[in-house]
Batch of 4 targets.
Target 1
Amino acid sequence: MLLCYIAMTIALARFEIAENDHAARTVIVFIFLYYISYNIGFSGLLVSYSSEILPYRLRAKGLTIMFFCVDLSLWFNQYVNPIALEAIEWKYYIVYCVFLAFEILVVWKFYIETKEIPLEEIVKKFDGDRALLGGAAASEKANQLTGQFHGNSGFDDEKAITTQVELKA
């Protein structure tokens, strides 16, 4: 994506200098190549990666934040880009080249590789040994943590038994 955007920026600069038809056609070609690479690399990953790395209890909140950020970027692109393009013309594309380089750095440094990791174990990447895994392992770990916080080791007190009966009813 970054390489397509750099090539498009160079072609726009060449068109501005010489009004060359070849430069104009090059811009169109790289616009299409950019969107093909965007759709392969990011379009489907916005929702799938966000929902994959978030635990179930945080998934709705995380997706809400993600969609809010998408809406902010759409607003920015709709209202700010025309003003900036009119003011500094093709040089504004350099701003996006820098932003794409920044995005590559963030993805490389902070995104977790999820290939061949079961969804239930991705939580270990965030929480370490205190992670609550699905099923029986999560119940056992929750019982241990509850025992640590309440000073006991299981369902020995009346409140825990009452809670257990309420859940069954």
Note: The mean pLDDT is 83.
Target 2
Amino acid sequence: MLYQNYIMKQNIIVNITLPVLTLMCVIFLFVGSTAHGIHPLPLDANIGKEAPGFVLNDLSGNKVSLDSFRGKPVLLNFWATWCPYCRKERSHLNELHRDYRDKGLVILSVSTDRSIKKLRKFMTDTPAEFMVLSDSDGRISTSYNIKGLPSSLLINREGIIKHKFTGFREWNNERSRKLIDTLF
């Protein structure tokens, strides 16, 4: 009987105290930290800030600067030839490029592949209708905090990063196009 009373008290403590403490922690994280100007769950510190400038080579060896597209909205897409979701996304980006190039959207596709030779071969077999750049040393993907592929950023005309997406995205669906339209 004493043992059963002990177990019942322990269950009450666990079933009531633990959820209350958890709730208090959640409230502290969301209310307390934002009161001090700290976002409790930052998805990316670059969102809302100016996109880091860069100069990369295209597949012909020409230097391309992000700053040269200031005044135009940019979809900055990081990918690799070995990434199946990046390959799947290619046709969506090609279609988006066809539909938005006359409106001024610039698609910069940044390959994170280490081998330029493999990248060129892949591009011969799977062409892109938009500009492909090489970040073979990973400097630019690091500056944009790229943690998974494919990753895409939407940058407005003023050069501010408005959105970031990690993973495959259907760029030709209505939701994606509405986001693109907000950049104009």
Note: Residues 75 and 107 are 5 Å apart (CA to CA).
Target 3
Amino acid sequence: MRLPRHLAVLPLLLTVAAARPAFAAPDVRISEFMAGPARDWDGNGTFSSRDDEWIEIVNGGSAVADLTPYFLTDGDSIPRFGFTGTLAPGAVLLVTGAESVTWERATTHPVFGLSLGNTGDKVLLWKVTGSDTTLVDGYTYKTQEAGSDRAVGRTADGTDWKLEDALNVYTGTTPPLGTGCPPTPGAVNDCGITPVAHETWGRLKALYR
């Protein structure tokens, strides 16, 4: 399979067009991801720390979105997955590490999967328009957000991110704190965003002295 022309010139484009995402959430945007899987998230019956990573995007706009110009990278800006087809308004699309590997092999990219770091990294969504490549959305996550089976999700309007730690409770005090929400790959993120503060008994007693 030949590499699409707009992805073949990415190394040059990414060095000159690494624009920051706008403050307002774009219509096509990252909605949820998991950097530290500890179980079989892609459903193939076998756990793989590479293949079971996943990133979800959503079309938060009111019109059908053409996904052909979009691709994903991590912090090193090497293309990890290029989209095709369309996405209906309000619909989500899940990309697993295994799908990333298949795409990388088919397009002769280095085969690393989504390559999300387990001590913090970036999840980036790019769009190619003519000769321009623009960073339209992204999130920089911290170590606790990459813990085993913890996901990072976004509210439906795209304004807030939350740590989804129902499968591996985060008890630290460094923000973002856990919400107790479960990961929801391939589904709408409808769990609340109120952080859960895990207090020790000693700290609770000190509040009432």
Note: The CA atoms of residues 9 and 33 lie 27 Å apart.
Target 4
Amino acid sequence: MEPGATMNHDGNHKPASQASQLFSRFAQATAQWTGHPAAFLGAILIVLIWIISGPMFNYSDTWQLVINTGTTIVTFLMVFLIQNTQNRDILTVQLKLSELVLAMKGAENRFAAIEDLTDEELEELHEECRARAETTFHHLEERRGKEAGPRTAARKQ
């Protein structure tokens, strides 16, 4: 698949729009940079400069407005960038897990597309899996009890 291409529900590849590719690259680069310690130190430096400059501006409303406006704008924009990178990360993990499920012999392939289920269907599947896990746990406990029985009797003799 070519870089930037996506796959539709029919399994056919479709090229991503140039705007989508640009935003994706920008979001990834920004997330990479803002997650770096240097970015955090830069933010601390900006806040320190703002604090130190307070007496020069007599702690005026404008002085306070500068930091409030700056942090509001940065926070607003970062929400979209963070959501984009989280969506991308979740999708890549889901695709990797789907590939593993499909590759496993005896696995239920319905789990490969589980992200497409409704909340109610997910809850039903969760209850079904919980019941299967409990059944498996009880079988293991029974097996351990049967294996421990002869060993315990042999030790007593």
Note: The chain has a mean pLDDT of 84.
